[in-house]
Structure to design on (708 residues):
């Protein structure tokens, strides 16, 4: 029972990341009709926003270590700590939440720049060419990040308040031994909140309504005198922000390195296809579904039954779904049929 | 064809001014040329973008190394098994993937490639030797040439001819020429025409009562076998096989080669493969020191600026160059180098004979469609 609860949580957690990235991919595809292979790179850029913030906050100078009296010892002390003492230390500790604030404008800017600078020239080109050019862009972004931050993964710590594990076992009335890291629970809640936010933006605001109308029939909305192109640009920026936030929040779970985007990209593309190209609820549902399936497949009992299943389950499910339900779980008719 | 043969066989001579005429690199040119030719048969002719072709490369490598381990160090059976097994894989994967087209096809092939990659790393370790990669060892059975027992690891041979250095290059070059000839015949055959017709309008083909799937299937399998051939040749020149050859970035690389050279053209993919391997070998060897020496003839401050600009693009960062090049090609020259050459040729012709504008114009769009 413990293992089941634990794996469900693991799955939801992973699924949250998949769903967030897949959501952005689907937004870009549904509005602009762009197959964006650089979306994983946006996720990675978000994560490195957090790294950059941490680096900036911990710019240090060498000071004498007073606690050691036998010989002259020095230690690196961040300026913030020197200036403000405990407050400074607190700021450094909360670098991940702080970087969320930074990541939103930065990612929005990157999104707009990408759409205006590159993607808009590819609306009328074939999907293959879109894939290729964004794939090239992903390589470029990845390499730039590597130039600045190096090839090694950089560990990031969550604030110490939530660094430990939550006693969900006692909370649910199960065994005491069942614990789960706080941060991953927070990540799950965060993912749900962001997804809910995006959906309510699209569902309950006039702006979102126009965007949805544009997704359904772009020409008619254009004929009604609405600058649908500008709204789509905004939506693309929104997709970039969502991917970036997912990246920032994921840093304490998985130390970021410059290839993390590619790994997640392939998986989230599979997620999008399973959910159905262009369907937002499909992307989210498929994200959580595949996340849970993957973590259940890595249970020892199942691994003994079918060796290697944990490695391939996602792709296997994708193959089966594509053959049985060609449009994915919730795909609309007529999207990407050829 | 004759010109092509001569050009390939004399590569050691005319590439030496570029510093590329050492056998290791030349072998890579030839091998990845084969890989790209094969990919082009699928992508260039039918327009089906497969993101999983590296699987076949990896499968070919594994099969070849196993043939070295189990049977003999002769390369012929290794190539045979490598190509055959890749063909079998292509039949399996193609049978399922070709039910869909467009981006779904890409995702399906990608899914299969990732599955094979992950399996090769984890469960199939007894066969693939996981992260270490499959290697030869002295205790291998090698039932056919058990008589030979020298010290050190055995070297791959072609009936006694050692497959290293230039003999290895000439062997791969001959295979490349044969592969090129086959692809030439395919391009100019009715079969090739049908594939091109599928690319330009598959619906119309089905409406006139033409079952396209067997043709796609054959194209997919041929292209997979080319990749298997390339993979087994990789094992011939360097007998070890690792799962990283199957990673999807490797599949991306062959797409890049084909696009760079010019998809759908005969010679383009080989050019693209050669260029990328050249960049990989030459530019990744550059470092700041070398750059400073290169620009030593300039005044110091200018040299420093140039070095600062170029440095991120070479050495470790040659991938950055690759990505940037990739984008530039797709944005400005979707037909690749071949289209570029053809355009330049068109301009020259136009300048020479102004009234004869038609021929020059007719040249340019042809590559786009082909």
């Amino acid at each position: 029972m413990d293992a089941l609860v634990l794996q469900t949580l693991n799955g939801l957690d992973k699924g949250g990341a998949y769903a967030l990235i897949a959501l952005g991919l689907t937004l870009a595809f549904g509005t602009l009709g762009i197959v964006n292979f650089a979306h994983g790179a946006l996720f990675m850029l978000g994560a490195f926003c957090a790294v950059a913030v941490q680096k900036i906050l911990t710019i240090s100078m060498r000071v004498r270590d007073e606690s050691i009296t036998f010989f002259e010892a020095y230690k690196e002390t961040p300026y913030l700590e020197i200036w403000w003492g405990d407050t400074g230390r607190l700021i450094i500790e909360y670098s991940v939440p702080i970087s969320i604030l930074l990541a939103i404008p930065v990612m929005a800017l990157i999104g707009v720049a990408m759409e205006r600078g590159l993607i808009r020239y590819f609306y009328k080109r074939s999907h293959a060419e879109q894939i290729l050019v964004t794939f090239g862009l992903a390589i470029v972004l990845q390499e730039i990040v590597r130039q600045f931050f190096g090839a090694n993964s950089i560990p990031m710590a969550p604030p110490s308040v939530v660094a430990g594990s939550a006693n969900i076992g006692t909370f649910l009335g199960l065994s005491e031994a069942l614990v789960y890291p706080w941060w991953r629970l927070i990540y799950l809640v965060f993912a749900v909140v962001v997804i809910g936010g995006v959906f309510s933006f699209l569902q309950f605001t006039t702006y979102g309504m126009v965007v949805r109308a544009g997704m359904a029939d772009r020409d008619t909305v254009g004929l009604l005198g609405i600058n649908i192109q500008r709204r789509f640009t905004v939506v693309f920026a929104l997709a970039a922000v969502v991917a970036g936030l997912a990246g920032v929040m994921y840093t304490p779970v998985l130390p970021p390195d410059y290839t993390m985007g590619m790994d997640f990209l392939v998986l989230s593309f599979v997620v999008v296809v399973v959910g159905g190209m262009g369907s937002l609820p499909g992307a989210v549902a498929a994200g959580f579904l595949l996340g849970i399936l993957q973590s259940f497949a890595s249970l020892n009992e199942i691994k003994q039954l079918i060796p290697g299943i944990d490695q391939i389950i996602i792709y296997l499910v994708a193959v089966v779904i594509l053959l049985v339900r060609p449009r994915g779980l919730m795909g609309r008719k007529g999207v990407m049929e050829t | 064809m004759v010109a092509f043969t001569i050009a390939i066989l004399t590569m050691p001579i005319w590439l030496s001014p570029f510093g590329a005429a050492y056998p290791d690199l030349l072998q890579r040119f030839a091998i990845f040329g084969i890989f790209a030719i094969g990919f082009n048969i699928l992508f260039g002719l039918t327009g089906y973008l497969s993101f999983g072709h590296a699987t076949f490369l990896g499968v070919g490598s594994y099969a070849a190394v196993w043939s070295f381990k189990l049977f003999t160090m002769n390369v012929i059976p290794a190539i045979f098994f490598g190509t055959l097994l890749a063909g079998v894989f292509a039949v399996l994967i193609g049978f399922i993937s070709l039910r869909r087209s467009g981006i779904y096809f890409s995702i399906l092939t990608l899914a299969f490639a990732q599955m094979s990659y992950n399996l090769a790393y984890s469960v199939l370790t007894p066969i693939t030797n996981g992260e270490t990669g499959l290697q030869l060892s002295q205790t291998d059975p090698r039932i056919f040439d058990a008589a030979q027992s020298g010290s050190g690891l055995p070297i791959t041979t072609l009936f006694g001819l050692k497959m290293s250095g230039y003999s290895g290059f000439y062997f791969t070059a001959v295979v490349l020429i044969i592969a090129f000839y086959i692809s030439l015949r395919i391009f100019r055959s009715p079969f090739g025409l049908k594939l091109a017709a599928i690319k330009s309008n598959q619906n119309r083909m089905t409406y006139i009562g033409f079952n396209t799937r067997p043709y796609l299937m054959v194209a997919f399998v041929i292209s997979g076998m080319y990749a298997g051939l390339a993979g087994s040749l990789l094992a011939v020149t360097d007998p070890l096989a690792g799962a990283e050859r199957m990673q999807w970035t490797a599949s991306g690389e062959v797409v890049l080669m084909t696009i760079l050279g010019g998809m759908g053209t005969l010679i383009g993919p080989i050019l693209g493969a050669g260029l990328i391997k050249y960049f990989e070998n030459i530019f990744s060897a550059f470092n700041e020191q070398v750059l400073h020496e290169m620009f030593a003839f300039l005044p110091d401050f200018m040299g420093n600026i140039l070095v600062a600009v170029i440095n991120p693009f070479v050495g470790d960062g040659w991938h950055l160059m690759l990505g940037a090049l990739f984008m530039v090609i797709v944005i400005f020259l979707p037909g690749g180098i071949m289209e570029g050459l053809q355009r330049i040729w068109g301009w020259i012709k136009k300048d020479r004979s102004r009234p004869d504008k038609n021929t020059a114009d007719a040249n340019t769009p042809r590559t786009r469609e082909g």
User: Anything to note?
Assistant: Confidence is low (pLDDT under 50) at residues 356-370 of chain B. The longest helix of chain B spans residues 213-237. Chain B has 18 helices and four strands. The two ends of chain B are 19 Å apart (CA to CA).
